[in-house]
């Protein structure tokens, strides 16, 4: 949905983005990679307003941070 601007489930183009955020005590749309909120990587959500399907994405600039963290494990 992020790239195509269309829902892969219902083909709707009624898509909204909810920006990732970090709040007190690690609350919000984020991934905590360390012990404080300063280690958080924000997760943006794309939501289809027709069927409710969602996708989560992180910004490209944060990919290396996640990849190099001690919490990242290969499946």
Structural account:
- By secondary structure, the chain is an alpha+beta fold.
- It has one domain.
- Helix content is 11%, strand content 25%.
- The protein is built from one helix and five strands, in the order βββββα.
- The strands form two sheets. It has a three-stranded antiparallel β-sheet with strand order 1-4-5, with no helix packed on it. Strands 2-3 form a two-stranded antiparallel sheet.
- The relative contact order is 0.23.
Over all CA atoms, what is the radius of gyration?
14 Å
Widest sheet: strand ordering: 1-4-5
Give the termini distance in whole angstroms. Answer: 24 Å
Unreliable runs? none
> What general outline do the C-alpha atoms trace?
elongated
Largest sheet: 3 strands, antiparallel
Number of strands: 5
Roughly what fraction of the amino acids lie in strands? 25-35%
Structural class by secondary-structure content? alpha+beta
- The SSE order reads EEEEEH
User: Any idea how many domains?
Assistant: 1
The helix count comes to: 1
Q: Mean pLDDT across all residues, rounded? A: 93
Helix content percent band: 10-25%
